[in-house]
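so the lab meeting is tmrw and i was supposed to have these ready like two days ago... anyway. pasting both below. for each one the top line is the aa sequence and the line under it is the C-alpha cells. i havent really looked at them closely yet so no promises
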Amino acid sequence: MGTQGEEEVYVKVSALEAGQLTLPERLFITNADPEKKATVPSLSFLVQHPSADGKITKLVFDLGLKRDLSKYPPAQQAHIANRQPTILHPDCADSLRTGGLDPAKDIDIVVLSHVHWDHEGTPDDFPSSKFVVGSGTLHLLTNGAPPHYPKEIFNPDLLPKDRTQELPPTTSDSSTAAEGQTDHVWKPFAGFPNTVDFFGDGSVYIVDSPGHLFGHVNLLARLSHTKWVYLGGDCCHDPRILTGEKDIALYDDGHGGLRSVHVNTEQARDTLDKIGPLLKKPCPVIQSGDEPVEVEVIVAHDKGWREKNFKRFFPGTL
C-alpha cells in the first residue's frame, strides 16, 4: 500500500444530501411486497484529501438528482414519472454550500459512480472541477445500451469534454492506456481485481464494480489506521442484499425473458461477493499491521443509513 513518506494518509468523508426518489421494492429485492414503495436518498459524498504541501483536495463522489427535472431528456423524464415522489432540494450543490463550500470554485474533482439519472446530478454546478468516470461511460452517453438503456435517455453533452477523464479499460496497462490515463493503472487491492490508487498514497481507491451499468465504479477510502469506508453506489439498492437477507429481484424484461435493475446480473452478484468480506469484523482483506480493521459499507439508496446518520452529513464527517 502506498504511503506518503512514512506517514499513512487519511481522508475525511462527509455524506451529502443530493435528492431522493421513490422505488418500488418489487423491482429491487426478492420476496417484496408488490405494492410497497419507499422514498430513498441518492447519497453523494465529499472526500477531503490532505497533501504533503498542506493543500486539501476536495473530491465529490456522485451528484445525485438534478434539482430541475426538465433538464433531463424527454425519454428519461417519462421514466422519472414512475419514480415519484422525488425530493429535489437540497441537491448536492445546496449541501456543499450549507457546509461552507462553493461548488463552482472549491471542488477539485467529481467522480461519478455511473451515469444513471439519479447519480449524474447537475455537472454545470462544477465549472472548475475535473470529472472522472469509469471505462465505457462516454460511449454509453453517446450510444446508450439498447434495448434497456436506449441512447434517448442519456445526454451526450452531460460532461465537459475538456475536463473529463475516463478511466482505462481494466484490460489496459500503463503502456496501452490512452494519453492522460497513464497515472491510473488498475491493480488488485482488498480482494478486488481492479482498483486505482487514486492519489498514489493508499488513501482512496476507485474500485471497478461491474454489473449495474457500464462504467460503474465504487470508492474505498481510509479514514484512520483501522477504519475505512466503502461507498458502494448502486452495487445494490437495498442493504439487505449485502447481508444476504434478500437477493436481487428478477422481473419481466418485456422481451420474453427476465432481467434485473443491473445490466448484467451475474456480474453484479460477483461484485457483491467481493464486497461481502468488507462487512466482516475484523475485515479479512485489508491489513493494518496487527490491528483489526473495520470497513463501513454504504450504498447510495440506503434510507435507514441516512435516517440514523444525520450528524455525519457535511459539515459533519464519518
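ok protien two:
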Amino acid sequence: MSQSSETSPAVRELRLVVTAADYEQALHFYRDVLGLPERAAFASPDGRVTILEAGRATLEIADPGHADFIDEVEVGRRVAGHLRVAFQVDDSAATTAELAAAGAEVIAEPVRTPWNSLNSRLEAPGALQLTLFTELGGGDGGEIGEGGAVGDPATE
C-alpha cells in the first residue's frame, strides 16, 4: 500500500512481542539492565505483559544473501535465524559487557563494520538474538547503515 505525502501513515507503532518462559528474567534484562523504560504493564488471570519503550522503531527487510553478509561481518559465520533485534546504543562495547553480566551470551564481541558502526552480537533472554550497534560517524550521508542500506537516512 502506497502512501502519498499528504496522508498520514497507516502504521503508528512497531511493537515486537516476545514470549519469554522466564518473564522476570527477561523483564529485568530488558528494562533494568538494557534500560528500556516501562510504558505500561497489564495482568490477566493467566499471566502478565509489560510494554517497554525502545526509541524509534524501523523494520529492516534483508534477503538471505545480505543476512549472510551481515552475520559474516558481525560474527564471522551465519548464526541468526529469520529474526534479529538491533538496538542502537551509545557504547556498544560497554553495553555488551553489561548485558553479558546480566545473563546474555556473547556470540561476538564488538567489531567495526564496513558501514562504520561498532556492532556486537548476543543471545538474550526470550531467545532473541541481538545486535548492539554504535554509529561511529564521519560519513557523508552515503554510508551503509546497520543493516547495509546505502544512503538511507533512517539508518544513519
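from a quick look at the 2nd one: Helices lie at 23-33, 64-74, 92-101. Confidence is low (pLDDT under 50) at residues 139-156. will dig more after coffe
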